[in-house]
């Protein structure tokens, strides 16, 4: 069913400020239900984990509910959900854990499509281990990451293939299932960055074939919490560095220090919110999430067509990327204006966008735009509406003609 965007927007207090929030790819707003869940957690009294008293048991319950909620959003099982402050921290942690067994001459494969958070932790871990880094290249100007190239990149020495499920600037959604299947056939693990992909459609880590799937709740209407989902049996085979007294069970052994319990309650509320985007959806929360995220994707793609058509019609606008499958994320420049100037002009018109490389460091490098300030990113999420898009188009037209 079609998403009722005005009903959705009414649930987001921040959207009432009159700005067009096209900066969702850098972090979404949160609905009132998430704010209430965080506040209710604090009001109820929270204790540290594992205690005998009710406030501690509430924190334990919140943590367990968080793991189930993440599994309901992306697939996998609650006991394979590792929690952390954000994706970057977790990826450094997982890279260090995996690299413990690497030998000089082993190999890792990263891609130029990826956000640097799924590149540098692997490159640096490889350097420490004496392993070789191999690069999957982006086809320019289509913005596609061809899965076929992995046949030549993979060898019997490949330990990990790190690849994104969607580019955070040009939106390309590579054929992750094909890439992870090739990795598995070669005996390598796959580490899939789902940070940009997760908010834009239904996700199934099993269908993606991802050994590890990373996501960040603040990109999908939740608080600033990250998670990595993996098969608990795989996690059992890894031994990250950890404190002696901290839990050695999976997935806790991958988690460091005391988590933000109240925020975890907010993550569960965010998943509930997403599950309710299609109010006619029925069944388990997982089933409602899948139906609702499909409705959100259809809504975003409809608006995105309008956004792209509008930008493409402006003579002095250059759009980057035109992948066959992509998220509703536009990346563009305006002739004669720096991306920073365009973003400042849009801010005057109360339109929030990002300018710059957005940590798509390798991609903006090979595109040859990084030194010039890269480009402007306007990203749509489920709460954006036609007036957001039209406001952006009208404001860009003032510069571009
Ligand atoms: C595709 C992608 N990967 C990784 C990250 C880093 O995520 P985090 O801020 O949770 O470390 C981002 C953040 O913008 C991103 O867009």
Describe the structure.
By secondary structure, the protein is an alpha/beta fold. It is 40% helix and 14% strand. The protein has 14 helices and 13 strands. It has helices spanning 5-10, 32-44, 54-74, 87-99, 120-129, 150-153, 176-185, 205-208, 232-236, 261-275, 285-312, 339-348, 361-366, 386-400, and strands at 20-21, 81-84, 107-111, 132-136, 158-164, 189-193, 212-216, 226-230, 317-319, 329-334, 351-352, 354-356, 375-379. The strands form 3 sheets. Strands 2-8-7-6-5-3-4 form a 7-stranded mixed β-sheet, sandwiched between helices. Strand 5 (158-164), helix 7 (176-185) and strand 6 form a beta-alpha-beta unit. The longest helix has 28 residues, at 285-312. The protein is globular. The mean pLDDT is 98. The structure holds pyridoxal-5'-phosphate (PLP). Pyridoxal-5'-phosphate is lined by residues 26, 86-88, 115, 117-118, 164, 168, 193, 195-196, 216, 226.
Radius of gyration over all CA atoms, rounded: 21 Å
| Order of neighbouring strands in the sheet with most strands | 2-8-7-6-5-3-4
Most strands sheet: 7 strands, mixed
Average pLDDT value? 98
Task: Kindly estimate the percentage of residues that lie in beta strands according to DSSP.
Answer: 5-15%
Poorly predicted residue ranges: none
Give, in order, the helices and strands: HEHHEHEHEHEHEHEEHHHEEHEEHEH
Secondary-structure blueprint:
Blueprint: H1 5-10, E1 20-21, H2 32-44, H3 54-74, E2 81-84, H4 87-99, E3 107-111, H5 120-129, E4 132-136, H6 150-153, E5 158-164, H7 176-185, E6 189-193, H8 205-208, E7 212-216, E8 226-230, H9 232-236, H10 261-275, H11 285-312, E9 317-319, E10 329-334, H12 339-348, E11 351-352, E12 354-356, H13 361-366, E13 375-379, H14 386-400
Parallel strand pairs: 1-11, 3-4, 3-5, 5-6, 6-7
Antiparallel strand pairs: 2-8, 7-8, 9-10, 10-13, 12-13
């Amino acid at each position: 069913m079609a998403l009722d965007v005005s009903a959705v927007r009414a649930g987001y207090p921040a959207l009432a400020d009159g700005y067009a929030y096209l900066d969702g790819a850098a972090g979404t707003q949160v609905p009132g239900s998430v704010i209430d869940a965080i506040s209710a957690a604090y009001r109820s009294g929270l204790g540290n984990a594992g205690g005998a008293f009710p406030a501690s048991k509430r924190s334990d319950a919140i943590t367990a509910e968080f793991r189930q909620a993440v599994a309901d959003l992306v697939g996998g099982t609650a006991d394979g959900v590792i929690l952390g402050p954000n994706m970057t921290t977790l990826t450094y942690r997982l890279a260090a854990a995996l690299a413990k067994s690497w030998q000089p001459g082993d190999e890792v494969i990263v891609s130029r499509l990826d956000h640097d958070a799924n590149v540098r932790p692997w490159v640096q871990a490889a350097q420490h281990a004496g392993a070789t880094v191999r690069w999957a290249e982006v086809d320019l100007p289509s913005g596609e990451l061809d899965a076929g190239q992995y046949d030549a990149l993979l060898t019997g020495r490949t330990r990990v293939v790190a690849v994104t499920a969607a580019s955070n600037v040009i939106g390309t959604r590579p054929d992750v299932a094909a890439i992870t299947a090739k990795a598995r056939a070669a005996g390598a693990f796959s580490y899939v960055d789902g940070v940009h992909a997760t908010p834009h459609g239904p996700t199934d880590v099993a269908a993606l074939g991802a050994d590890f799937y990373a996501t960040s709740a603040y990109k999908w209407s939740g608080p600033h919490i990250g998670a990595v989902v993996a098969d608990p049996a795989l996690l059992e085979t890894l031994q990250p560095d950890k404190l002696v007294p901290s839990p050695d069970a999976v997935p806790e052994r991958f988690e460091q220090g005391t988590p933000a319990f109240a925020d975890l309650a907010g993550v569960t509320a965010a998943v509930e919110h997403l599950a309710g985007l299609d109010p006619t959806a029925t069944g388990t929360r997982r089933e409602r999430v899948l139906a609702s995220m499909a409705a959100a994707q259809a809504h975003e793609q409809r608006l995105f067509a309008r956004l792209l058509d509008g930008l493409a019609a402006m003579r002095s606008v250059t759009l980057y990327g035109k992948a066959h499958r992509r998220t509703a994320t536009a990346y563009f420049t305006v002739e004669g204006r720096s991306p920073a100037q365009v973003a400042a002009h849009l801010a005057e018109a109360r339109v929030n966008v990002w300018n710059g490389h957005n940590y798509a460091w390798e991609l903006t490098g090979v595109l040859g735009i990084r030194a010039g300030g890269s480009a402007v990113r306007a990203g749509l999420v489920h709460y954006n509406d036609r007036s957001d898009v039209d406001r952006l188009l009208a404001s860009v037209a003032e510069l571009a003609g």
